[in-house]
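call fold target=Sulfate exporter family transporter
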Amino acid sequence: MSSKTPDPGLFAGDLFGEVYQAELVTKPPRVTLGVLLPGLVTCLIASLAAMWLSEHYGFPAILLGLLIGLALHFLSEHPALGAGLDFAARHFLRIGIVLLGLQVTLMQIGAIGWLPFAGLLAIMAAAFGAGMLGAKLSGQGRYAGILAGGATAICGASAALALYSVIGRDRLDQARFTITLVGVALASALALSAYPLIAETLGLDEVAAGYLVGASIHDVAQAIGGGYAISDAAGAQATIIKLARVALLAPVVALVALWLGEAGASGESRKPMWRRVSMPWFIIAFLSLVLVNSFVSMPGGVAENGLAVSKFLLLLAVTATAMRSRLSLLLEAGWRPMAPVITATLASFAMALFVATMLI
């Protein structure tokens, strides 16, 4: 008999099997590739379907991954798929965020200038504050506001995933988190279509138009694409501004972690200050990659390939998260969880338009 499985004969006097069952419970099952593979393959197939639909019909892949994942939620009830889906939602997310560090350098941030950078901080603060206000007015609580405001202020779904890892499921249920992801993806898709047209209608020059798009559209690829839809100069400006927002992901997550403290902890059980200041490992790795990318000349194609891999891993994470979300909870939540996303998006655009027209 394996040494890992207790001999039932040793518990012959345990009439109800309580001691024997407790011994088994204290040893969690070993996670192997064979255990993870069914869930990972299911998630991969759903994500590839989302990518195919995105390429052929022009919808954001993240949004399609969310919708396909929600439609396939019933599969996650199969016991063979749970471990793989949870692995994808947790670990692919973190690796994808780390790889975003290949997209930005300190020199790019410094090239913005102090006034546009200060304006960018004001835009992000407005989005964050509006998300908190929208959550309060709709009765969603501050954690929903932090999630929606932070995702809108920084970089959409990837920021939402990073912030949710700090907030925790015990503070904000997964149904409202999924609705926030859907809202952010929808808002980003609508902004990609509307903001370049608004910039051209208002007669903004290329620099101001690029600033407006880069400072207010949530998703990285859509912000950059929206800039280049106006002109090459606007696209270059939008890229720099958007990457500066991505670079601020780490300090924002660190500040939120410091502000909220440990999930479920209070009073004497809370971690000391120096422990709460510490950032999640993937945020530290993200910052480290930004520093390496700033001072080490990367081979050609590394940034482009890194972005492609990052986007795919984040798509896998989002799809897996949606598959693990209960549709009944989403239906019960109604429209209210969307309110923080709406208020944060409107505030972000209004402040970005003010800065682009008055300061740039």
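return ok
The chain has one domain: 61-358. Residues 4 and 27 are 9 Å apart (CA to CA).
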